[in-house]
Amino acid sequence: MSAPSTPLAEQLQAEQAAILRRNLPFSLCGALLTVGLVWAAMREAVPAWQMLAWFLAQAAWTLVRAWGVSRYRRGAGDAGGVARWRRTAIATTGVAGLLWGIPFAYWMLHVDLPHQMFLIVALLTLGTGAIYAYCIDLPLLYAFQVPYFSLPFIAILTIPGTMHTVLALAAALYLAVTLVFAQRMSRTQIDSLRLRFENLSLVESLQREKEAAERSDLAKSRFLAAASHDLRQPVHALSLFIGVLKEQPLPDESRRLVDSVGRAASALGTLFEALLNISRLDAGVVRVNRRTFALTALFDQLLLEFTPQADAKSLVLRVRPTRAVVYTDPALLDRILRNLVDNAIRNTQRGGVLLACRPRRGAWRIEVWDTGAGIPAAEQDKVFWEFHQLNNPERDRGKGLGLGLAIVRRTAKLLGHAVGLRSRPGRGSVFAITVPRMAEQHAGQPEAPPPGHSAGALKGRLVFVVDDDIENRQGLQLLLEAWGCRVVAGGSGEEIVQAAARRNERPDLIISDYRLRNHETGIEVIDALHEEFNDENIPAMLISGDTDPQRLAEAAARTWPLMHKPVEPAELREVLVRMLG
Asked: What is the pTM of this model?
């Protein structure tokens, strides 16, 4: 019972047949050339009719073999067809071996010694060439070599005399050695083919795994984007209503309750902001604005902001003074260092955290040291994965969200800065980022924020609001009215355009949700209102709960401000004041 065929075995057989198919035309041409040489050398020693008969037989059989070669393509795509073609090739090659072996054996017995020597040389020449042409398929090689060599050598052995006996034994030894050599050549070629196919299979497997991982990552991103958008809607409405409540006169107890609800909503906003940062980095919409600046102001600000968080855990947060000047995006570097300092404080129970900077090979290496539990070597790459946290199976929000270090790695990659990590379990960790170094005399000062305008800039302004979610629309309308704005609201582009036609008054500002019903977008609504009033200079802004990288890229292509739900009322007010002030 034959062993079951495997895909690899079928591939090997098909490739062996293909190599044999490529070698056969050269082999046939070499055989015809040898026939011509034999004719020229033996025509005086062999009767003409014998030479002619042999020549015609060789030519006819060469045509038969050539026709068999041409039929290869018919069965090349099928394992059964390849097997049938191979069996035919073995049979025709065996007959070719007989067409050489029988005449040579007969002539060995009837020609003189010089012509016998020529026949032996011709045998060895063509036989050696056959090894290289046929060794990819040993049965085919044996089908040719055995009758080709054995019959003339037997004939030599029957001739009396020591010389012919030695020649026959030497020929037998030669045949044995060549067959062993051919077997090793065949094994080497087949092993090479097997290795090639196994490597191709491995590459294909890796490609499938890569594609599966990419599909999984895309599905995760889509899920996060959809879930984030759907969750942001009610949280955004909640944030707006909390903002409206804060504008009202309330008893102390009610105000404390509102503040508590506000902090809970703010915590949700922090999670959504982290998801948004990941999505924006994946979407490639984060613009890098590099400039030269001194680190000291950034370090002082981080010390000021994170000291209360460290004090709450009885930790010592220290910042080593530095005169370092770097060339990078200050906002993105600030985001990286904030995440690293926050991560260090969250994962340190006693001791302290140090933020320092030191020169390193023409650059500055900014390091955040902690005395936390440390990170095992096997986990040091995984801590940069999204939502991967050590020692937090209960998903305690107080220990972070598991997104900070993922944001650090993505942001550093965007900037082209190297991120490093050294850690010893039980001793603490050191996270570092290497930033290009610039001469201090070219240092720029951190840009100061533009001066704030009076909140009175909003009073009496006409604002068009478009949002398909009724709670969000009502919450934003109430908040804007509490700030003194006049509001026209609609749930779609058609509604707001109709309302604008009835109002017949140019708006001071358009605020639209990005994703509306029936696949309509805020970009389309704002464009429609600009066309309605024939004025593309009407200020506009988008508010979105979407974290889909493709949508973020579409929104980023416009110059309008883009805010992400849930929007903090104070932040929204500041943006509106800047736009209208």
From this structure: 0.40
